[in-house]
C-alpha cells in the first residue's frame, strides 16, 4: 500500500465510528465487525475476507494512541491543502516528497518524524499474540404450541443441531494419534501483521493456517481437519407466558459450544401458536364473541360466558344493548411480564331467529304496533 492510499483511507468510516470516538468505542466496533466478517464464519466469501482485512487495518491504527495521533495529524495536514496528490499517477510519489524533507508540521514535529513509525521498508513483520476464546455460534429452532399454552407459558422439548468440537479428534482437526502443530508463520496467533506495502503494519488472518493458529498435517477423516462437527441435542425450553404467534425468543447459552474457552452461543426459538376455536387475542387482552337473543339485548339479562381457564363468569347485559357492543371482564386475559393480567373483551352478537311460530309472530306484531313510528330505525335518514 502506498502512502497516498493510506492517507486517503477513512479508518473511522471503516469501523463506523466518529473521529472523536473513545478507545472503548473503537474496540467495541472492531470486535463486532470482526465477528461478523471473520473467515471462519464466512467460508468462501471473498467480500467478507476483504472486509475483515480492512477493519483489521483500521483497528491497527486507531487502537494505538500514537499511530492514531500521527494518522489524524497527517490527514489534518493534507486536508488543509498543504500538499496535493499528483493526479493520474504522474509526478513524484509522497515518499519522494518526504524523503530528506526538513520541513516541520504545524505541531512542531519534523515531517519525516511524523511518519517515521508508519513508513517501513518492504520487509514483512509478524506479531505473536495469544489466540483468544471464540464464542459459539447462535442456532435457531421452531416450536408450535397451543393458544392456551401461549397465554400461560409452557415447557417444550426441542431437538437442536449445532456446530461443536468434533468428537473424533476432540476439536484438534488432526487424525487420531496425531496432533496439530503450531503455525510457524503466525506463531499460533492466527493473525499476521505485514508492512509489505511500505506503509505500516496491517493485521490480517494468517495465510498459512487461515486464522486457526495451527497446522494439521494429517487431517481427521471425520471433520476433514476443520475440528468441528454437527451435534444433535434434546433440551427442555421454557416458552414464557404471553408469547405471540411469530415471536422469536432468545435462550441464552443454549447455542453452539465455544472454542478455546469461549462462551456458548444462544438459541433463538421461533414460536408458532395454534388458533383457538373460541378465543382471540388483542395485545394482552383476550377476545370472545358471544351470541345473545333479541329479547336479552332489548330487555337486558345476566348471561354466563366462558373464560380461557374453563371457569364461567356472569356478564350483565343492560337493556337496549346494541349488536357489536363490547364488555370488559377484568383479570381474565393474558399474564403480563410485570405480574399483572390483561382483560377478557366480550362482544355481543344479537341473533335473529330464522323461523317463528304463530304465537311468536303475533307477539312481534303486537310489539311493532306498540312501538309505532318509534320503531322505524331509518327515520333519521330522511330528516324532518
List the helices and strands and how they pair.
Blueprint lengths: L2 H6 L2 H5 L7 H15 L8 H17 L2 H15 L14 H5 L12 H4 L24 E7 L1 H6 L1 E12 L15 E2 L8 E4 L7 E4 L8 E2 L12 E12 L8 E4 L15 E7 L6 E3 L2 E9 H6 L1 E6 L5 E6 L8 E4 L14 E8 L6 H14 L13
Parallel strand pairs: 1-9, 11-15
Antiparallel strand pairs: 2-7, 3-6, 4-5, 8-9, 10-11, 12-13, 14-15
Helix pairs in contact: 3-4
What does this structure look like?
The structure is a single chain. The protein is of the alpha+beta class and 384 residues long. Helix content is 24%, strand content 23%. The strands form 6 sheets. It has a 4-stranded mixed β-sheet with strand order 10-11-15-14. A hairpin with a 2-residue loop joins strand 10 and strand 11 (285-293). Helix 3 runs antiparallel to helix 4 (46-62). The longest helix is centred in the first third of the chain and has 17 residues, at 46-62. The chain is elongated. The protein starts with a helix and ends in a 13-residue tail after the last helix. Mean pLDDT is 78; it is low at 80-130.
Question: Can you give keywords for this protein?
Answer:
384 residues, 10 helices, 24% helix
Amino acid at each position: 500500500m502506498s502512502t497516498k492510499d493510506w492517507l486517503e483511507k477513512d479508518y473511522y468510516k471503516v469501523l463506523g465510528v466518529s473521529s472523536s470516538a473513545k478507545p472503548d468505542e473503537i474496540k467495541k466496533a472492531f470486535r463486532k465487525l470482526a465477528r461478523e466478517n471473520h473467515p471462519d464464519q464466512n467460508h468462501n466469501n471473498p467480500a467478507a475476507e476483504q472486509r475483515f482485512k480492512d477493519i483489521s487495518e483500521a483497528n491497527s491504527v486507531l487502537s494505538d494512541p500514537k499511530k492514531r495521533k500521527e494518522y489524524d495529524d497527517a490527514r489534518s495536514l493534507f486536508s488543509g491543502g498543504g500538499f496535493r496528490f499528483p493526479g493520474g499517477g504522474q509526478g513524484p510519489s509522497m515518499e519522494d516528497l518526504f524523503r530528506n524533507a526538513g520541513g516541520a508540521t504545524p505541531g512542531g514535529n519534523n515531517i519525516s518524524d511524523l511518519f517515521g513509525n508508519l513508513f517501513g521498508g518492504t520487509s514483512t513483520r509478524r506479531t505473536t499474540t495469544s489466540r483468544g476464546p471464540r464464542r459459539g455460534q447462535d442456532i435457531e429452532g421452531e416450536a408450535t404450541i397451543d393458544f392456551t399454552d401461549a397465554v400461560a407459558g409452557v415447557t417444550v422439548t426441542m431437538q437442536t443441531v449445532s456446530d461443536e468440537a468434533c468428537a473424533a479428534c476432540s476439536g484438534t482437526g488432526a487424525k487420531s494419534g496425531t496432533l496439530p502443530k503450531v503455525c510457524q508463520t503466525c506463531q499460533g496467533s492466527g493473525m499476521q501483521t505485514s508492512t509489505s506495502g511500505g506503509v505500516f503494519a496491517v493485521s490480517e488472518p494468517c495465510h498459512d493456517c487461515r486464522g486457526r493458529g495451527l497446522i494439521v498435517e494429517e487431517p481427521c477423516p471425520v471433520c476433514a481437519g476443520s475440528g468441528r462437527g454437527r451435534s444433535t441435542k434434546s433440551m427442555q425450553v421454557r416458552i414464557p407466558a404471553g408469547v405471540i404467534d411469530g415471536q422469536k425468543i432468545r435462550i441464552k447459552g443454549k447455542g453452539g459450544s465455544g472454542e478455546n474457552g469461549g462462551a456458548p452461543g444462544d438459541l433463538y426459538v421461533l414460536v408458532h401458536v395454534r388458533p383457538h376455536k373460541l378465543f382471540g387475542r388483542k395485545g394482552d387482552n383476550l377476545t370472545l364473541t358471544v351470541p345473545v337473543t333479541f329479547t336479552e339485548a332489548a330487555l337486558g339479562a345476566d348471561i354466563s360466558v366462558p373464560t380461557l381457564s374453563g371457569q364461567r363468569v356472569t356478564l350483565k347485559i343492560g337493556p337496549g344493548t346494541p349488536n357489536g357492543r363490547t364488555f370488559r371482564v377484568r383479570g381474565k386475559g393474558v399474564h403480563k411480564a410485570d405480574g399483572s393480567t390483561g382483560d377478557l373483551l366480550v362482544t355481543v352478537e344479537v341473533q335473529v331467529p330464522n323461523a317463528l311460530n304463530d304465537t311468536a309472530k303475533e307477539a312481534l306484531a303486537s310489539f311493532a304496533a306498540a312501538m309505532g313510528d318509534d320503531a322505524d330505525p331509518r327515520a333519521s335518514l330522511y330528516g324532518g
